[in-house]
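Our consortium's second objective concerns turning raw sequence data into structural hypotheses that experimental partners can test. To show how far this objective has progressed, the report includes one record in full. It was chosen at random from the queue rather than selected for favorable results. The single chain below, 196 residues long, was entered without modification.
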Amino acid sequence: MAFDTTSALAGMFLWLIFGYLTVMVNCDLQRAIMKNPLVIHVCGLTAFIFLFTLLDGDNDGPVYKLLLQSVAVYALFVMMTKSKWYFVSLVLLLLLADQLLKKHVDFKRAAASSDASNASEVEALVVLQARVSTAILCSIVLIVFVGTAHYAYLQRIEYGKNFSWYKLFISTNRKCADKSPNYYNIAASSRARRRK
């Protein structure tokens, strides 16, 4: 069976919830993680590989392929974290739909194993589920890329010459403001400054 990207992304959100347990890690590692964003990403990618090599028993491909796919899905996840809430919400809804569909197919497959007369119906459902999952995955990738491009554009407007791709994708020490900036006003004042 192929590497399951949507299950991996759903698992990443589960993993985020476990982030609240970081206070249990020793202080030296906490300081290293907090002071160096690359350490955070290395720890994240390592934990991601551990999580999905342990949980995905059907993944029987070569190790290099697993590593490349893990890096690709992790990059997709990082990009998704650089999107506005409405893009992320849409991705979460698509992930939920995909996971529910997979569970429904698993249920039907288990029920059909005891009743051979439903085998052709289940096979048709499996084919449909594979097509829908592929469409969902393509939609998710498109939404993530559009959402990231949109967010990067807004950040470029807000920070102007101080905008940094490194800070956007790698740095994790930015604090969230209480409310979102009014990008329309920022863009208008930026255009006015350039005209002078």
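The partners drew two points from this record. The chain has a mean pLDDT of 81. The helical segments are 5-18, 27-35, 37-55, 63-80, 85-114, 119-159, 165-169, 183-195. Both points have been shared with the crystallography group to help prioritize constructs.
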